[in-house]
């Protein structure tokens, strides 16, 4: 593959980074226009991305990847790492998603955050996030990726805790930050193992050695990369932070926790396809984690009354589908990315729709206090509804194409693996249809349940226009990406095929099974919430499962019991050891010195006769010592 040099890649990152730095340094002086500058720079980065795509399309397949060296970062002996950018068929997909959806969210936020006194700081953080996310997907090595990886973690922390004057929001941001650090340790160890075992941390270098390195080495790297992905993409067992992350302003949820940051783990695994192809056990573990999480998140979504937390659980589940696809190897990589892209449209649109509902309902998030909002918010209802049809997989909406391909690939894995993974994906489709229909009914189509002092109304154009554009993507993106296997062929040069893929079930059969599960899920939700009294069941009368699901399937309780309490006990024991042994030893030495000094001080009496006696005794001891030695 020929690598072409392109000196324009840096502008993708430089534009939003300039916006972040400028707005933070200028402070209040930029309050009146800072949001406009940030939006313009995000749009400028999107325009650069479109230009780079057009340039890429004009080159032959083998010449499409381009690189730009910024400077030499590390040069020690034979180990050299350049701060370089790589734009290829995979990273351009993320660039356009990040900057395109990011710009729409900037536009939405102009109106949504118009009354916030710190709007300028909010937009600075948005620009910082986009710059960091672009560095993550454009870095040409694991070290360069790591810088962007930590950057999006910082931006996420700042945005989740944007309203940190509320203690719960500050706690949520710290929880997200700490749990992401656990995943980041996995990425750190993966880089260390690659350096120690292979002598390189660049993607091309690791790919070259992957064919010759031992399976144990590649498995170790793969498992560490999976831990990193699990933390960043809120997958089992590091998923507990995502629901609390809804403390941030709703545009944050749309940008970071739906369309971009939580998909970084999927990017990492797909980008590292050569590692997992050489480590089948690690690859299987990826698929298992994805399957567990897609069910885990779906079950949580069935019980959430907070509209944003219901969508957060949905995000967790949908990322699980992507991780599952990435764990299916070359047969699933392209479909994982396809679902990632379609999900970026419909989930970002639904999060913005949730923000629109909150805007019209005085920031109320409890869906049991909604109802009949389709009459008062028709644009929000339509755009949200199109996203709903896409996520549950109704043809011809986007999710139908991407999710069905993932289910089909899982089933075609064959044997017990195919039955378990494919069956789990089908079950997840049914549960998704149930809880998303529940959200639609409770919010838009069920009878009114809000107070008369509330006056729901449609959002202004700067809010509903981005929602409408994302809704168009929810309708068309799946068809466009799957037409003639367009995305699969686009990404093919990056993935090494391994033999022929068997087709155990025809696509029409898989689609039939998936749509049957969807129909069952929708029907159950309609009977339970549309055709019955939503408030007929008192909170204390709900089932044990519902109570557990509302507590996120006890994930916080389990983490507290397995990690926090033992950690506190260990810390307490170490403190006691430190105080009694380490500090005790230091204090003992000090006390000995002070005691010796006090004893010696007694000899300093100030009397000449005492000093004469000491001289006499000393002389006698010296003479005796000389006599003993000379005998």
Description:
By secondary structure, the protein is mainly alpha-helical. It has a domain at 559-630. The protein is 71% helix and 3% strand. Strands 1-2-3 form a 3-stranded mixed β-sheet. A hairpin with a 2-residue loop joins β2 and β3 (79-87). It starts with a strand and ends with a helix.
Largest sheet: 3 strands, mixed
- Based on helices, strands and strand pairing, what is the structural class? mainly alpha
Low-confidence stretches: none
Total number of beta strands = 3
- Average pLDDT number: 90
Strand order of the largest sheet: 1-2-3
Number of distinct helices: 24
Order of helices and strands: EHHEEHHHHHHHHHHHHHHHHHHHHHH
Backbone shape: globular
| Beta-strand fraction estimate | under 5%
Labels describing this entry:
about 5% strand, about 625 residues, mainly alpha, single chain, three-stranded mixed sheet, about 70% helix
């Amino acid at each position: 593959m020929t690598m072409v040099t392109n000196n324009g890649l840096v502008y993708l990152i430089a534009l939003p980074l300039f916006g972040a730095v400028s707005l933070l340094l200028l402070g209040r002086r930029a309050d009146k226009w800072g949001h406009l500058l940030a939006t313009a720079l995000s749009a400028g980065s999107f325009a650069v991305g479109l230009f780079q795509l057009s340039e890429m399309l004009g080159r032959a397949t083998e010449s499409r990847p381009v690189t730009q060296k910024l400077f030499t970062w590390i040069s020690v002996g034979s180990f050299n790492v350049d701060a370089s950018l790589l734009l290829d068929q995979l990273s351009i997909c993320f660039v356009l998603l990040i900057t395109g959806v990011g710009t729409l969210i900037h536009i939405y936020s102009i109106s949504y955050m118009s009354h916030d006194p710190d709007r300028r700081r909010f937009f600075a953080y948005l620009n910082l996030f986009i710059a960091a996310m672009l560095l993550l997907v454009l870095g040409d090595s694991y070290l360069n990726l790591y810088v962007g990886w930590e950057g999006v973690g910082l931006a996420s922390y700042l945005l989740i805790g944007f309203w940190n004057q509320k203690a719960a929001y500050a706690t949520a941001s710290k929880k997200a930050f700490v749990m992401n650090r656990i995943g980041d340790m996995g990425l750190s160890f993966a880089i260390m193992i690659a350096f120690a075992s292979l002598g390189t941390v660049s993607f091309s270098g690791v790919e070259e050695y992957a064919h010759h390195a031992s399976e144990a080495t590649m498995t170790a790297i793969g498992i560490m990369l999976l831990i990193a992905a699990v933390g960043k993409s809120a997958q089992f067992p590091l998923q507990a932070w995502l629901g609390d992350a809804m403390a941030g302003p709703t545009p944050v949820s749309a940008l970071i926790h739906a369309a971009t940051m939580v998909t970084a783990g999927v990017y990492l695994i797909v980008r590292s396809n050569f590692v997992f192809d050489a480590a089948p056990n690690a690859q299987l573990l990826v698929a298992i984690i994805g399957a567990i999480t897609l069910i885990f998140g779906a079950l949580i979504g069935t019980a959430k009354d907070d509209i944003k937390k219901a969508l957060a659980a949905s995000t967790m589940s949908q990322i699980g589908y992507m991780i599952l696809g990435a764990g299916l190897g070359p047969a699933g990589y392209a479909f994982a990315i396809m679902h990632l892209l379609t999900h970026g449209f419909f989930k970002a649109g639904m999060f913005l729709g949730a923000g629109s509902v909150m805007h019209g309902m005085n920031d109320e998030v409890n869906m049991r206090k909604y109802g009949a909002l389709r009459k008062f918010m028709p644009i929000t209802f339509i755009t949200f509804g199109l996203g709903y049809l896409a996520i549950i997989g109704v043809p011809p909406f986007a999710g139908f194409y991407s999710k069905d391909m993932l289910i089909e690939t899982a089933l075609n894995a064959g044997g017990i693996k195919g039955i378990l993974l494919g069956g789990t994906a089908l079950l997840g489709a049914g549960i998704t249809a149930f809880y998303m229909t529940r959200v639609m009914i409770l919010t838009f189509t069920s009878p009114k349940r809000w107070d008369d002092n509330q006056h729901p109304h449609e959002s202004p154009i700067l809010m509903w226009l981005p929602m409408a554009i994302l809704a168009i993507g929810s309708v068309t993106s799946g068809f466009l990406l799957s037409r003639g296997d367009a995305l699969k062929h686009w990404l093919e040069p990056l993935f090494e095929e391994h033999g022929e893929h068997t087709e155990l079930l025809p696509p029409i059969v898989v689609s039939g099974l998936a749509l049957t599960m969807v129909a069952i899920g929708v029907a159950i939700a309609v009977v339970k919430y549309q055709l019955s009294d939503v408030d007929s069941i008192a909170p204390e009368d709900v089932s044990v499962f519902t109570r557990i699901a509302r507590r996120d399937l006890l994930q916080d309780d389990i983490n507290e019991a397995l990690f926090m309490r033992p950690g506190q006990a260990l810390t307490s024991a170490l403190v006691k050891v430190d105080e009694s042994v380490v500090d005790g030893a230091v204090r003992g030495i000090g006390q000995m010195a002070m005691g010796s000094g006090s004893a010696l001080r007694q000899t300093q009496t100030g009397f000449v006769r005492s000093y004469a006696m000491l001289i006499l005794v000393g002389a006698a001891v010296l003479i005796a010592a000389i006599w003993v030695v000379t005998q």
